[in-house]
Amino acid sequence: MALSGLEIFKKLPKTNCKECGFPTCLAFAMQLAAGKVELEKCPHISEEAKEALSEASQPPILKVEIGSGEDAFTIGEENVLFRHERTFINPNGFAVTVKDDMAAQDIEKTIKEVEGLEYERVGQTLKIEAVCIKGTSGDSQKFKQAVDTVAENTKKPLILVTEDISVLEELASKLKDKKPLLHAADSENVDKFIEIAKATGCPVAVRGKDFEDISKVTEKMRAQGIKNLVIDIGQRDLKEDFFNQIALRSAAIKKKNRLFGYPTIVFADEMAKDPLRETLAASIFVAKYASIITLSTTSPQNIFPLMVFRQNIYTDPRQPMQAEEKIYAIGNPDESSPVLITTNFSLTYFIISGEIENSKVPCWLLVMNVEGQSVLTAWAAGKFIPELIAQYIKKSGIEEKTGNRELIIPGYVAQLQGELEDELEGKWKVIVGPREAGEVPKFLKEHASA
After folding, report:
1. Which H or E element spans position 98?
2. Which of these, 98, 194, 203, lies nearest to 143 by C-alpha position?
3. C-alpha 358: how far from its chain's center?
4. In what helix (H) or strand (E) does residue 40 lie, and over which residues does it extend?
5. How far apart are CA 189 and CA 187, in angstroms?
6. I need a surface site. Which of 20, 38, 365, 386 has the fewest CB within 10 A?
């Protein structure tokens, strides 16, 4: 169990040096117990105390890395039940399932589709994180062949699901550099999984029929120093699994029970035969609180909404997503092309740039740094006002790229037109653009032909 603030305080140097950012060692200890600060913030702590407190300094949900290399993904490290309390840390990973009774060409086709499920949205790459191979045939040779086929066709992390522990041991040894997730250790085979985990370093999924069963397995593995664990306590039932996810997260964060402080896996592909129902179930577990969600479908109409939803859930609302402040050339503009300006709120930039591309009119798009705020918010905050816009125009270098001296501003700040022209000393004509992004293509086409 995690230590209390007072127990942590007893092991600190008690210098009250304030170098950690807190007024006293007691204050630091309380923040450490709450998981709001790292132990390394204390510059005077002894190695003995550091070792003793390392457990207390870890987040309630431990970090686990699945896979290796550039395609590895991290789950866990969560500290809160609700995003508004602070933020969620590591987005869940989506895994598409292949079964070992599928023909090799069908497996290859599925992997090709998985590789193609990649989208750029507001500066982030949305993709499938892993492939889950299930031994549904009962034939160990078929399972090994399926795993080989997947491994040959993708670098994505693998999740190996089979009841044959000897096959898992063989594959874990063979693929240990890829660090696949091995499913699953339980109360009957836990000793064997301890051997495999120690020998290969692969993360292990722990399966149990109830919370007591799970705690016995995690406790035994923790005693052997194995903490790269993922919990599967699912009944493959939406209602039961939903309850279990909330109960596990609550026990780890509110009760500080380390035996439940691990990421979780949910098999949404086993909860519904209809892809839409499966997608609905998966969306529930994005928010509450699965770390890995397996899916049976590779249909973009099912996958893309889940990816966007996940991105929204795991975007810290306190940290606006920002585009880089610079001049963006869209569609090979020249010295006579239109010049537009907007703020560096990522969503604004990507929507406007997309509509400019749709118009097929080459343009210069000036993106001004307003600390990631939208146009109206930045204007209200005094960050997107004529004086500052004029300063940005002059320093941006746009006057060296184009002889066009017409500046198109967002329609929502039409009131800036006259004052902005004055700030630009009459060298630029300010034109009020449309209020809605969807009207930009029509506006640009009409403006270009005028």
Report:
1. strand 93-99
2. 98
3. 29
4. none
5. 6
6. 38
190, 226 Cβ separation under 8 angstroms: no
Which tokens go with 403?
A: 């002889």
CA distance linking residue 245 with residue 268, whole number of Å: 13
Q: Which class does domain 5-57 fall in?
A: mainly alpha
Q: Pick the closest to residue 258 from 58, 4, 36 (CA basis).
A: 58
**DSSP reduced 3-state for 127:** strand
Q: 326-449, what's its fold?
A: Rossmann fold (3.40.50)
The CA distance from 220 to 239, in Å, is: 29
**Architecture of domain 64-313 in this structure:** Alpha-Beta Barrel (3.20)
Q: Any idea what DSSP says for residue 185? A: E
- To which H or E segment does residue 207 belong? strand 204-207
Q: CA dist 291 to 79, 206, 232, 266, 414, Å?
A: 14, 14, 10, 8, 46
> Does pLDDT of 263 surpass 70?
yes
d(C-alpha 153, C-alpha 257), whole Å? 40
Specify whether the backbone of 181 is left (phi greater than 0), alpha (psi in -120 to 50) or beta: beta
Delimit the domains of the chain by residue range: 5-57, 64-313, 326-449
Burial 14-29 (b: 16+ CB within 10 A, else e): eeeeeebebebbbbbb
Phi and psi dihedrals of 384, rounded to 5?
-125, 70
Please tell me whether residue 312 adopts helix, strand or coil conformation. Answer: helix
Global pTM reads 0.79
- Partnered with residue 329 across adjacent β-strands are 364
Q: Is 71 helix (H, G, I), strand (E, B) or coil?
A: helix
